[in-house]
Specification:
35% helix; 288 residues; alpha/beta; two-stranded antiparallel sheet; globular; seven-stranded mixed beta sheet; disordered C terminus
């Protein structure tokens, strides 16, 4: 009889298919370690397995360094144009704006770092490889001018493939423009710290990236003007192991310190307080 036993009903196939979003998992470019994206971001986009410093977006960098609710973006009205009529440049700018969600290759903000007022420029490699065009140079110049007026320290975090070829000589002129305002900061004894991330090359490394009162770099960052292949062909000989890395430049006196991303906020704050004669962060907070 049916009520003495459980009737077996055929199982209906499950029609709903659960799909994991494509951006849930990320893979380390250095060691191949795969983890959820949230795990990477909790570690400031540093691989928890091999400690490789992956690229960090400009806004994420700003939020990691600056005091909460103090960040104010400046220079938002500046946008790149096509002054030389370079083929397909407007289309590339449009794609970069859509993909990077940034106005250009640098984010300029003001705010506080452990109670210390300053301006920070953060380059974003996601926008056309962090290339330096007219807008990048103008944003740096305006941020530097603000530091001159307010007597606030300046920090620039570089991540760039160099000058933007689509703007020709106008892009190269930004090297002189940025260097000029930085020289005025030096004359007024207003601190400027340069932070080099992976990669910092070309016209950026030949201008404002190497003009800091203190120059710090992230571990493993590639830093140089020309690429190692070009240098090898020019010299006609093999290059030393680790050539153009942050550690190599530290050993040869081009960089003052190699700083892990987790210690960068503390290091910058300590350097700026030393340069400006401010007390230590805890004491300064109590005094304020």
């Amino acid at each position: 009889m049916a009520w003495f036993r459980k009737e077996k009903k055929p199982r209906e196939p499950r029609r709903e298919r659960l799909e994991i979003p494509t951006d849930t998992w990320e893979k380390c470019e250095a060691c191949g370690h795969t983890d959820i994206r949230a795990a990477f971001m909790r570690n400031l986009n540093v691989c928890p397995n091999c400690d490789y410093h992956r690229r960090l977006r400009a806004w994420d960098y700003a939020q990691a360094l600056m005091d909460k609710d103090t960040i104010v973006e400046v220079g938002t009205e500046l946008r790149s144009t096509d002054p030389l009529g370079f083929p397909e440049y407007p289309a590339r700018l449009k794609r970069a704006l859509a993909n990077a969600s940034e106005g250009d290759a640098i984010l300029t903000v003001t705010g506080f770092m452990e109670g210390l007022p300053l301006g920070i420029g953060i380059m974003d490699f996601a926008f056309m490889g962090g290339s330096m065009g007219s807008v990048v140079g103008e944003k740096i110049a305006r941020l530097g001018q603000r530091s001159l007026e307010k007597k606030h320290a300046l920090v620039i975090i570089s991540a760039s493939g160099g000058a933007r070829m689509q703007e020709g000589v106008l892009s190269l002129m930004q090297m002189a423009k940025s260097a000029s305002v930085l020289s005025q900061l030096a004359e007024r004894r207003i601190p400027y710290i340069s932070v080099l991330t992976n990669p910092t090359t070309g016209g950026v490394s030949a201008s404002f990236a190497m003009l800091g009162d203190a120059i710090v770099a992230e571990p493993g960052a590639v830093i140089g003007f020309a690429g190692p292949r070009v240098i090898k062909q020019t010299l006609g000989q093999d290059l030393p192991e680790g050539f153009q890395t942050a550690e190599f430049l530290l050993d040869h006196g081009m960089v003052d310190q190699v700083v892990h991303r987790k210690q960068l906020r503390e290091t910058l704050s300590r350097l700026l307080r030393h340069m400006t004669g401010r007390p230590a962060a805890a004491a300064y907070t109590q005094e304020a």
